[in-house]
Structure formats: C-alpha cells, structure tokens
Amino acid sequence: MDESTIICKCEEINLAEIESAIQSGAHTFDDIKRITRCGMGPCQAKICSSLVREIISQSLEVSLSEIGLPRMRMPLKPTRIAALAGKETSSSVVSVFAESAPKEGDES
Amino acid sequence: MTKQYDVAVIGSGVIGSSIAYHLSESRQKEILVIDQAYPLSGTSGSTQAWVWVHNKTPSWYGELSMLSAELYPFLERKIGDVEYKRTGGIAPFFDESDRQSALRLAEQQAEVGIEIEVLSREQVLEMEPALSPDIVGATYSKIDGNVNPFRLVELYIRAAKKNDVQFSFYNPVIDIRKHKGMFEVTTRKGVFITKQLVLAAGPWSRSVGKFLGLDIPVKQVRGQVLVTEPLAPLIKHTIGGMRQADNGEVLIGYSKEEVGYDRRTTLDIIQDTAKMAVDYLPDLAKANIVRCFAGIRVMPNDGHPIIGPIPTIENAYIAVMHSGITLSPLVGTVMTELFEYRETSIDLEKLRLDRFKEFKISV
Lengths: 108, 363
Ligand SMILES: Cc1cc2nc3c(=O)[nH]c(=O)nc-3n(C[C@H](O)[C@H](O)[C@H](O)COP(=O)(O)OP(=O)(O)OC[C@H]3O[C@@H](n4cnc5c(N)ncnc54)[C@H](O)[C@@H]3O)c2cc1C
Ligand code: FES
Fold this sequence. Notes:
The complex is a heterodimer.
Chain A: E1 6-8, E2 13-14, H1 15-23, H2 29-36, H3 49-60, E3 79-80, H4 81-84, H5 96-100
Chain B: E1 4-10, H1 14-24, E2 31-34, E3 50-51, H2 59-79, E4 89-93, H3 98-110, E5 117-120, H4 121-127, E6 137-141, E7 145-146, H5 149-162, E8 166-168, E9 173-179, E10 182-187, E11 190-199, H6 205-211, E12 218-228, E13 238-239, E14 242-244, E15 250-252, H7 267-280, E16 288-300, E17 306-309, E18 316-320, H8 324-341, H9 357-362
Parallel strand pairs in B: 1-2, 1-11, 2-8, 4-13, 11-18
Antiparallel strand pairs in B: 3-7, 4-6, 5-6, 9-10, 10-11, 12-15, 12-16, 14-15, 17-18
Helix pairs in contact in B: 1-5, 1-8, 2-8
The structure holds flavin-adenine dinucleotide and FE2/S2 (inorganic) cluster.
Flavin-adenine dinucleotide binds near residues 13 and 16 of chain B.
C-alpha cells in the first residue's frame, strides 16, 4: 500500500488523504468521513470502513476495538425514492414558503 | 506556568471556527478553540448548507442574512474555495391563494434591499424545467445560494491555524470559573486560563451556559435529510427544500421535530421527505437514495440569533443561532469588531441575550 492507494473506491479517496485527516487531528471513522468524504459513497462504507479503521489503529497506535464503527443510516442499500414516498403526509415536513410568508395582518 | 490566552472559544463548529478565524486576522491575540469532539461532529456537519436569504422574516433578520451572503465572495478570496455558489433561490407554492402573501413578502423585503420576484408557473418552469407543473408560482431571489459546509469549516480552521490559533480537539469543557478577572476553563485535558470567553457550543449551549450559571434559551430541533446518488444536472437553483451539490447528489429535506439531542433518522420522516421530493421534482421518483442523515438545529426560543456580550458577565460573549452557515461570515466579522473596537457596523441590540424574559429571571 502506498500513498496513492485508493482506500475508498466509491469516493476515490487515497491513503494520503486519510493520513492527512488523521494528522490534522481526526480520530474516528465519522470524523475522517466528514473531512474527506471517505465512506459517503453508494456502498455506505461497507468496502472501506475496515481498511480505514486499520489505518487509524496503526497511525494512532490504539487497538482496533477502541475505534468506533461508522454510524449506520437508513437505507442500508440504495432505495428508489418512489418506493419510499408514502401516501400520507406528516406535519413535521414543512414547506419553506409556507413558513416564512407573512400572513394577512402580520407585522413586518 | 499555565499559558494564558486572550480569547478562548468553546465550540469549533461553523460559528466558533469563523469567530476564531476572523479574530486571528489581525494576529494581535492569543486564541484557543476547544471542542469536545472533532469539528463537523455537531450541527455544522449535518446541515443543508443553503446560504438562504430571501424569505427570512422579519425583514431585519432577512437583512442580516443578506449582508452575510454578500460577504461570501470576499471570504472565499481569503480562506479558499468553499464551493460557494450564488445559485439564486426558488421557494415554490402550490396554492394560488399564496400569491398574495408572496407579494407582501416581496414588498416587505424590498424595504431592506432584498430583491424578490414573484414568479408565475410558466416563469418557474422556464427557470427550472424539472419542477412539477403542479406548482402555481414561487418567490425567487438572486441572492440565495449554497456552500459546502465541510469545506467551509475545514478552511476556516486551516486559515485560523495559519494565523497561530491553537485548537484542542476531543476535549470537553467540564467547568468554567471566574477568578481574579480571568476565566479558568476546566477541560478533560487540563485547565486553560483566558481573559475573554466566547460560547459557540451550538445545540449544547444550554449545558455550557450552566457552567456560568446561565440559562440560555434555546431549543433543539431535529431535521432529517435524504441524499440521492450523484445525478446528472437536474436543478440549477437552490430550491426551498432541496439543492444539488457539485458532485450531483441532491440533498432533500425540511423536517422539524423537537426530540432533544437524538440524531437518529426515522422511516416516517424519510417517507414524507421522499414524497415531498417527488411533489417538487417528479423525476426524482426514479432516483436512488444512498443515505440519510439527521442534524440538530439550535433554535433560540424566538427563532433569532443570539450574538454579543453576555450582559451579566464581563468579558464573556455568546454566539448561538439557527442558519449559522448563512450567517457565519457576518458573525465572525461583527464579533471581531466587538473585540477590537467595542462597537459594531450593524446594530446588535435585537440580538442581545437579555431580550429573553427567561434570561432575566435566571440572573
Ligand atoms: C437539517 C439541518 C439543516 C440546516 N440547514 C441549514 C441551511 O440550509 N442553511 C444554514 O445557514 N443553516 C442551516 N442549518 C443550521 C446550521 O447548520 C447551524 O446553525 C450551524 O451549523 C450551527 O453551528 P454551530 O457552530 O453553532 O454549532 P455546531 O456545529 O454544533 O458546533 C458546536 C460545537 O461545540 C462543541 N461543544 C459543545 N459542547 C462542548 C463542550 N462542553 N466542550 C467543548 N466543546 C463543546 C461541539 O462539539 C460542536 O463541535 C441546518 C441545520 C440542520 C440540523
Ligand atoms: S468504498 Fe468508501 S463508501 Fe464505498
């Protein structure tokens, strides 16, 4: 493995980028993810997570078991929006326009 | 001997990092930023990151957002490419009766110089052909846009480090005391002494405020966002509810739930958000969602930013707000004015902490 070895295939992030994130202070998979995008691709870190955790473990000289796993998020594999779009609505999803538009008689 | 700092900032999200960077530009102060985790682990790393202005009301709040949006191009020249794009913003409506309030909004915002056009269906569809023909109109302004929040925070920090700001990460603040005019900030990794203190702890502001005996009146409001696979260019503008990032991903979401600091994503909101996506952009039905995330908005009880000195404690300051991505260039700038000249180019009166009656009771 050298500096240009691709660690995250989906987002094309190489070893040097991971190491530089660790050097600037990132210690967990999720912290490295936000800085480099490593793990944000279609496989959702299934391919890269163990490799990245090994790199963290080696660079920081801590055991693998101390390095947290990435947070798993729905959906676990890519899912079509049409399949997710339910029929009912909920009051928690609001329209940007409706929220800001002044109502009749509102003070400005 | 323990090193003494001129300023310690608690929190390295977009707000704390921006303040530290702007303060460091004159290189006159020893500055320390402390974060319990790593930057972007808070709200600034789980945000839509619109630089959104046009329908922020009341209009003085819209004006603040506009002034901040106007600073972005200058900021980029100083700290580097944060992928700021002034795409123009469209907030669609689906009911003809909304046109009247849209026109009133345009009139109010014009008074502070925010230019809004109220578009017909044809005009909307001409600008964004992918939008649903069920839309009857929209408000539109050129000033809105979006930014890459990861790049933004990273580059604030990089620029601050270049100006010798010190950062201490993975280091929670666990107590604060004032002793002989100096603050003693106790952290997991030791005690730091500082003359001035800035609270920029985002959704944790309440618990950090308690160290100083303050009751900071903010709520935590969860928002969930869906991210598609990278798609061919679909929308050019920032649309109230969604935007397309440089890499083709579309970020969709505008949900609000008060569930405390709980960053789980839930199927009901994901489904409702997917439905909203298709209502706005029918073509999205065919797109795949690759991931979802949730972030916790920090919402002052009256919805408006809290920025400025803490009235009861000399040399202590606070900056906490929703829409911190939009406002961060302005917040960094005015806080620096406050520290260096004791007065600011915009009036901070409406943003004071003691406007809240809750605050008056607690002191
Ligand atoms: C779903 C969603 C969508 C949004 N969309 C937009 C948008 O489109 N446009 C926009 O402008 N804004 C948007 N926002 C709001 C915006 O993201 C926030 O206003 C902004 O990120 C707040 O930044 P912050 O620095 O105050 O908080 P944070 O980023 O949370 O930073 C606070 C920091 O303080 C640290 N901290 C806390 N307690 C301690 C302690 N005891 N010791 C040490 N460190 C501590 C934390 O670790 C954290 O890093 C959105 C928010 C959400 C949730
Ligand atoms: S290989 Fe890293 S996200 Fe797929």
